[in-house]
Structure formats: C-alpha cells, structure tokens
Amino acid sequence: MPTPLDRPVAAFTACPAPLGVLHVATTEIGIVAVDLGAETPTFVDELARRLHGRVLPAEDGNVPAEWRTTLAAATGEIGEFFAGARQSFDAPIDLRVSDWDRLVLTGAARLQFGETASYGELAGRIGRPGAAQAVGGAMGRNPVPILIPCHRIIGANRTLGGYGGSTYADRQGGLAVKRLLLGLEGSTTRD
To answer: What is the CATH number of domain 10-82?
Structure first.
C-alpha cells in the first residue's frame, strides 16, 4: 500500500495518435489532461506544476488500479474517435479551471459531433455576446482537448482561427491538428 508521500496526484499514459504522441492523464476524479505533441518529460513536468504533486506513469506500482482503468477507458474512447467509431465521450473529466473557462468549455462541450461555431457564436450561446476574444483565450487553455472539443470553435469567416490543444511550437503545427480533428468529423473550413 502506497504511503501518502508515495501517492501521486495524477497518472498518465502515452499512445500513438495521428500527427504524433497523445498523452492522457487522470486523477482520482477523472481525466485532467490530454495533450497532442508534447514530449513526455515536458507533459509530466507541466502537469506536476499545475497539480502541485507527483505525476507517475500508469504502470507505476503506486498508481491506483482505478486510475489505470480510467486511463484505459479514455484512451480507448479517443482511439475509437480517431478510427471514426465514436462521436462523444463518456470518460469522467476533472476540469480544474477558472469559472470563466468552465463556462466557455461547458458551452463548447455542448456542440455535437461535426457541428462548429465561431468564437462569437459561442460567446452568445453562453450569454456573453461580445466576448469572442475571451472565448478564444479559454479555448487555448482547454486542458482536455478532444474530450472537450475546442477544435469545433472556428473563426467567424469559417477559417480555423487558432488551436491551443497542442504544444506544437509553431502555429501551423497546431492548426494541422485542428484541421485533422475537424476532418475526422466531416467539418470543413477555409484555410
């Protein structure tokens, strides 16, 4: 039995995904992070800083079995999404964000598979018309992209806008991920 000092705040796993490696992390509550493109040490260090504790690989003996089960279910669902066999997610989410970000991300989560909305449209849907730029900021801070589909939020002129759901160093790398995710859902945008 792990001692309180051994017990992690989160556990993670890495799996292959289109355009690179996908990292998924869970806490005792649910999925707390999904990342496309980060190197494993960077992902772990940033998550440990954000959660103020140890983040261990799922196979570590100090990781509770329930956490491994949550990670396996979530990565299975994400794999099904990438294979075109899933349109929504059932994995529990541990959404540790500000009240504003929670409002925005909850609004984005209501979008259906293949549905898109502009930043301004989402601002209106959550009762904050005129807050398109702030909505964009919240989208860029989404800790669980794919599960909360920030990729479905696009520019008013049907362009991609931006994509913060990855740690790709360049804007084009992030936009390639957004384009891929929208393409999996049959959505089209203008470049």
So the answer is: 3.30.160
pTM of the model: 0.90
| Amino acid in the structure at residue 159 | T
In the chain, CATH 1.10.10.10 covers 99-184
SS3 of residue 126 by DSSP: coil
The per-residue pLDDT for range 82-91, each reduced to its tens digit, is 999 999 999 9
Residue 189 pLDDT more than 70? no
Contacts of 166 (CB under 8 A, 6+ apart): 35, 36, 37, 38, 145, 173, 174, 177
The phi-psi region of residue 161 (left if phi > 0; otherwise alpha if psi is between -120 and 50; otherwise beta) is left
| Per-residue model confidence as pLDDT tens digits over 26-83 | 999 999 999 988 899 999 999 999 999 999 999 999 999 999 999 999 999 999 999 9
Residues designated catalytic? 150
* CATH code for the structural domain at 99-184: 1.10.10.10
Sequence ranges of the chain with CATH classification 3.30.160: 10-82
Structure tokens belonging to residue 18: 């289109």
Alpha helices in 83-187 (DSSP H): 99-109, 119-125, 132-140, 171-184
